[in-house]
Design goal:
The complex is a heterodimer of chains A (267) and B (296).
Chain A lengths: L17 E10 L2 E11 L4 E5 L6 H8 L4 E9 L2 E2 L5 H6 L2 E4 L11 H8 L8 H10 L1 H4 L11 H12 L6 E5 L7 H16 L4 E4 L3 H7 L2 E6 L2 E7 H6 L1 H7 L22
Helix pairs in contact in A: 3-6, 6-7
Chain B lengths: L1 H32 L6 H19 L3 H24 L7 H23 L14 E3 L3 E3 L1 H23 L1 H11 L1 H6 L4 H26 L6 H16 L4 H17 L16 H15 L11
Antiparallel strand pairs in B: 1-2
Classes of the chains: A alpha/beta (267), B mainly alpha (296).
């Protein structure tokens, strides 16, 4: 089904941390995604791109148990979590950062992180210190209500809050949406840093070029179906992807592997 | 001047602190369960009558039985939640509001069945005021009411700002969806909210009954000024509700002072109308309240 010849490039080894296997589903009987398969291997950054309404966020909701599935399975570290309620999915280590309304605006930064650790019974303070080391600007604003922060800092709080539990996988829904270019770069740098610490990341993004730039692998969804997949570099170089998302300049990424015909990305 | 202090300012403070306690419950219920609970007034009545029975039975001071009355009222309200609100929780808000209205009528009738409809009082004998500087008269009961109310408000502050349960309440008031995605046990937060709201309502009812008398309409008469206080402070804002309660109580009492000429500015019989006027004015000009709460 996937047209990307680069599908084998950068393929992860062993049991995937998170796997959607031929998932079909939607809300209230209306199907939004069809036969979608996505795998996130250990230590990988995987990016989902696609035009508006392609069902990218719906894939996230399928993982979180917020979608009615008519077919397919969702597995976390090999265990079937299909249809598990959101709070229980979260308790199993799926850290989710929604696109908007992802912090408690009236709670201080510190309190937001405390709530992130709500399900932990042990001492979460060491983890909190790590988060402040990862996001130094937040350390200076511990007592500021999260609602009073800038968009970029709020996004940092949202990510730090999600990471307060031991993450099996981090799900980010458009983390750079609505941010200025400078903060956008910051967020992508942070995602890479978190991933370097061993946390697998599944990210939905509109800024396809930057996202693919840091991704190990990517999936292109169109109309709720898998269209292409491959390594981040291969997708960046793919003229079909270029035509869809990168302003029609398929070779602009300059990774040197670009093919000439749509759907024929060179491995 | 002394008359102003004795008969207007001090009673205003007493009434204001009672309103404040009631308004905290209304605002918490609205913020966390997302509906205007009309049965809140009846919770106060129930608390006052439970305390009355306990005080009569034990012969203790009303304040001594207050903690037990608060706990029993909270239990009763948890039972009401289980029976009436929980099954309706996932429907539309208006259904919950109407259910609370029905519950209000049921509880009031039940109170009248059990305790009767006539006036009762805690019967502490004659409360003689302390006279300061030969003119300022302060009733010990007023001092105890205001102090007890302040202690309870401080307790609410500590709960909300220092404890995990209180922070989870604020988190859920901010965003129930995100609270669920964070793994917060939302049913437990709801139980905490009912306990806090009902306990404070019982206290408010007992304080008012101790200051005046107990009757089955006690809570219903408080409902309007308490909603006005919650709105004034901004819906979902506990600190706003405290400030709003004090303001409404003071304004109600001070509005009857003869500011112009020798007649009361607002005849005492109409002073509840002042709370109503404030409420309408807020809804028109500043629906988010003074402290930027949620729009009703």
């Amino acid at each position: 089904m996937s047209a990307g010849a680069g599908a084998t490039l950068g393929e992860e080894a062993g049991t995937p941390v998170l796997a959607l296997e031929g998932v079909t589903g939607g809300y209230g009987g209306a199907e939004i995604i069809h036969e979608v398969s996505v795998r996130v291997g250990p230590g990988e950054i995987v990016v989902l791109i696609g035009p508006n309404g392609a069902g990218k966020s719906t894939v996230m909701n399928a993982v979180l148990g917020r979608l009615e599935l008519s077919r397919g399975r969702v597995r976390l570290r090999g265990r079937d979590i299909t249809g598990t309620a959101p709070d229980r999915v979260v308790r199993q280590g799926v850290c989710y950062v929604p696109q908007s309304a992802n912090v408690f605006p009236n709670l201080s930064v510190n309190e937001n992180l405390e709530m992130g650790a709500y399900i932990r019974r042990d001492d979460f303070r060491p983890r909190m210190r790590e988060m402040y080391e990862l996001f130094p600007p937040l350390a200076e604003r511990r007592r500021t209500p999260a609602g009073n922060l800038s968009g970029g800092q709020r996004q940092m709080v949202a990510i730090a809050k999600a990471l307060m539990v031991e993450p099996a996988v981090l799900l980010l829904d458009e983390p750079s949406a609505g941010l200025s270019p400078r903060f956008r770069a910051d967020i992508f740098r942070v995602v890479r840093e978190i991933n370097a610490g061993g946390v697998p990341v599944l990210m939905v993004e509109q800024n396809a070029r930057q996202a693919l730039g840091i991704a190990d692998r990517g999936y292109v969804l169109v109309d709720g179906r898998n269209r292409l997949d491959g390594s981040g570099a291969a997708l960046l170089a793919d003229p079909a992807v270029g035509a869809m998302f990168l302003g029609g300049r398929g070779d602009a990424a300059g990774t040197g592997g670009g093919g000439t015909a749509p759907g024929a990305a060179a491995p | 001047m002394i008359e102003f202090l004795n008969f207007y300012l001090i009673p205003g403070l007493v009434l204001g602190s009672i309103y404040a306690l009631g308004a905290i419950g209304v605002t918490l219920t609205f913020g966390i369960l997302r509906f205007a609970n009309f049965a809140h007034g009846e919770t106060m009545t129930l608390g006052a009558f439970i305390a009355l029975s306990l005080a009569t039975f034990t012969g203790w001071h009303p304040f001594a039985v207050l903690p037990i009355a608060m706990a029993l009222t909270a239990l009763a309200v948890l039972g009401m939640d289980r029976l009436f609100f929980r099954p309706l929780r996932h429907g539309s808000t208006i259904i919950l509001v109407i259910a609370s209205f029905g519950l209000m009528l049921m509880v009031r009738s039940l109170v009248q069945l059990v305790w009767g409809a006539q006036l009762r009082s805690f019967g502490q004998g004659i409360d003689l005021p302390w006279v300061l500087f030969d003119a300022l008269r302060i009733f010990p009961k007023h001092v105890t009411i205001v102090c007890a109310a302040l202690v309870l408000m401080l307790a609410v502050h500590l709960l909300l700002s220092r404890t995990r349960a209180g922070k989870a309440m604020r988190a859920m008031a901010d965003s129930p969806d995100l609270a669920r995605l964070t793994g917060i046990d939302t049913e437990r937060v709801i139980v905490t909210t009912w306990i806090v709201g009902a306990g404070l309502a019982a206290a408010a009812g007992v304080f008012l009954a101790y200051d005046t008398h107990v009757e089955s309409q006690l809570g219903f008469k408080l409902l309007l000024p308490i909603f006005a206080a919650a709105l004034l402070g901004g819906i979902g804002r506990p600190y706003g509700a405290m400030a709003g309660g004090l303001v409404i109580g003071l304004v109600e009492e001070l509005s009857t002072y003869p500011w112009i000429g020798s007649e009361a500015l607002v005849p005492p019989g109409y002073k509840t109308g002042v709370a109503f006027a404030i409420m309408v004015a807020i809804l028109i000009w500043r629906p988010s309240g003074l402290f930027r709460g949620r729009v009703f």
